Amino acid sequence: MSCEPWQCAEIAATKKANPIQKPEIAVALIKKAQRPLLIVGSNATERYMGGKPLIEFLIDFANASKVPVVATAHMVGEFLKRGYSPAAFMNAMDIGNRLVDPSWQGLDGKGHPDLVLFVGLPYYMEGLILSGLKHFAPDLKTMTLDNLFHVHASWSFPNATLEEWANNLKVMTSKFEGGQ
Amino acid sequence: MTTKNVRVKIDEMKTNTGLIRNLEISIGKLVDDSWTEPMGPTPKPSLSTLRDWDMKLLSKYKPFYMPDCDLCCLCTFGKCDLTAGKRGACGIDIGAQSSRIVLIACCIGAATHTAHARHMLHHLIEKYGPRYPLDVGGLNIKVEAPITRLVTGIKPETLGDMEEVLEYAEEQITQAVAVAHTGQEGNNLDFESKAFHVGMIDHVGMEVGDIIQVSALNFPKADPEAPLVALGIGSVDLSKPVIMAIGHNVIPSVGIIDYAKDHKVDDKIEVVGLCCTAFDITRYYNRGKIVGPISWQLKFIRGGFADVVVLDEQCVRTDASDEARKVHAPVIAASEKNCMGFKNRTNDPADEIVADLVSGKVAGVLILDPEKVGEVAVRVAQKVAPIRKKMKSLPEIPELIAQAKTCRQCNMCQRSCPQDLKIPAALKAAANGDLAPLTELYEYCIGCGRCEEACPVTLNIHSFIVKAGEKFMLEENNLCRAGRGAIQDVEIRNVGSPIVLGEIPGIVAVVGCSNYPKGGKDVYDICREFALRRYIVVLSGCSAMSAGSYRNSEGKTLYEEFPGGFEAGGVLNVGSCVANSHIAGAAIKVANIFAKRPLRGNYEEIADYIHNRLGAVGLAWGAYSQKAAAIASGFWRLGIPVVVGPHGSKYRRMLLGREDKPEDWEVLDARTGNKVNVGPSPEHLFQTIETKEEAMPTIAKLCIRPNDTWKGRSIKLSHYVDLSKRYLGVMPTDLHLFVRTMADVPMTMKDEFAKILEANNWKETVIPDPTLLPRMVRKVKE
Lengths: 180, 782
Known about the structure:
heterodimer, A: 180 residues, alpha/beta, B: Rossmann fold, 28 helices, globular
């Protein structure tokens, strides 16, 4: 699995993401976080693994981990259709903009998130938002659950096949109490 | 016109008192002020004149930066790492650096439009003289140059009057570029203010450019019924010699058309265009055809349709001449800004140039005389066409399949594709004889060719996609309305009241380039949705082409389905890039003609009016260029929000409001001076949208303004709710922020709203006479 940015013209950063070599590492980081948040983009219904759309893997993961979900683009309706209610729906730039504001107290008003997971946004958009967070929210930790390496995240899975990706998501889901 | 240069020279004069020799008197400027409107407070603003206004906007719409690079590499102190708060050797931080990049992009864009206008002005004055009158709409238009009047305080009447306007614009661009030098500005908001400034100047440059070409070249003059023109390669008679012009500056194409007409061969050749030159060809010449937007250059050159390729300026692929060489199509570069490495043959006899191009002795030439371009292009096309026989550089299907078998499935093509298209899977299928997946990519491919550059076995992947989609390409035969130019004063009077009161729910300006995330159909769908809802849909540039490239169930294009007037449910094409100025101009004219706000040198008041009252939104779904950045910036300074498609995130800076911060949404009530919270209206000044579905309710929401009457607000909210339900599948959760009185609530949605209002502890408020400017508050009588 490669730890180069998925899109070739993407510039390697001076401060690069730590690669997540095993899904168990991601799970440990998520469990350690006090106020994690999962941001799900429009590719959630475009990417399929073994005939199953990404969004269904993510619903399983969110149900198991209890990490609140922010649906971007038109994904809120896609979640609701499948019986899952995201904590919020918001434009991707809007959630990024809130995350760089240290005074923002999160979706529930109880505190700023300390770990933000990204998955399924257009690669270049997700990369840019992660860059914004790296520069302007240096205390915030970020992670991507995509199968595409994101250099601007704090932690990112390396580039991986669809089979590996599906396995990573399933393993992560199974490691939470709700996924067993 | 207010000022003129006067110069008197007397070589020799005998009088009763003596002899005068070599007397020369020069008066720099002589005031000839026949325009009775008093000068406003800010004629010809300099870099900092409107800074306070900019800061008012920037305090509501704060920059959200997304740096594309952690480094600054603009001077030899660097490269400097600016990651997460580190400062560079000059002291700059990543926020200021990010806004500096925005400023540089806007400067490039403004310089490009203004230089384009300057080139045309030189040419047109040389041809028609400085006293040639400006005429953008005859008796239908009295405010002929709203941006120019507003910004400079000049009311231009002739081509020569535009000299002073451009001199001002050129000085401001020079000043703004200087700001980007190391060790000048250091504060991010000051960089942003300067980006706004140069955006405003960009609109001046565009307005000059379009007004002079409309006037001198007799383009449609504010005509709602400008002719429908052919769009698509399928509309071109390929049995004739084809001259294809690419770029934005119509002057060389005018040379071609005039020569063809003068020599009575205009019915024997096809003159077609790509990108904005195409629009201006069809505004000048009823036989001209638009073959497509900017992103289709490779496709059409490789398709071999052109017998001569004429390159003018802006957005031309820098390898266009190399690609043309592959299909043996001679190239004429026709702009000083884009010489393409060719020898300058401007002063050579036309016969020699024609002979060299026809024989293939040279692949291309540089000709800077548009009339000579015309003669050479027409003669070469006629001679080359029978020899070339539309030779193309696309593979035949068996060859494509054989080459696809050599694909290593390394994924480098997909990883280089801005759209992340699944090219490896399509090539795998093609290798097995199934071209369907490759054909599916045709609609989504933006024609950049990066896949080919990345391929380790040098497959011509873009050509494969074009070949697979060739049938669709050849069937592209649609209609676009020729660019109509400005909006008539009477049209403004007719719609001024319903727009400002909110009863026409908004103006959606769909503009810009064709770097779409999922093809041009999104643009068509968005335009049609809002036209059916009786918004005014205004188009320009490549978006106007994409909008015309699809048909409804009755086989009608948008331009046939909807009227071309500036009216509820109208779908207008104002024209090429520089015609974007008419969209800003229309907004300004609403403030001036309908609301009777003084225009002359009165930028702040007019922008305040537009920002608080005019429900207009710009949508640049495929914006890619620096020009698009500058155009957007000009709209920002007027307080008009702009949204871009996902690729627009690469502009790396958004201007975002926070609907969760009520303190950001206070305005002054001009009647009382009281502060009134008007909610996030509009919520953002610059925002990236991820999908077409998200764009629909977002556009409707961004049309909400503080000044809406209860009836207008109710109409706007009903569209917002309906579009949210239809495209997002949910009721919006922020409706309480937009309801001021219960009368604002749409009649059919009372119950749904009631629950939301109650849950959010909603309280009634007043509808103010909104302004951000304390000086606009009328004194309350004691």
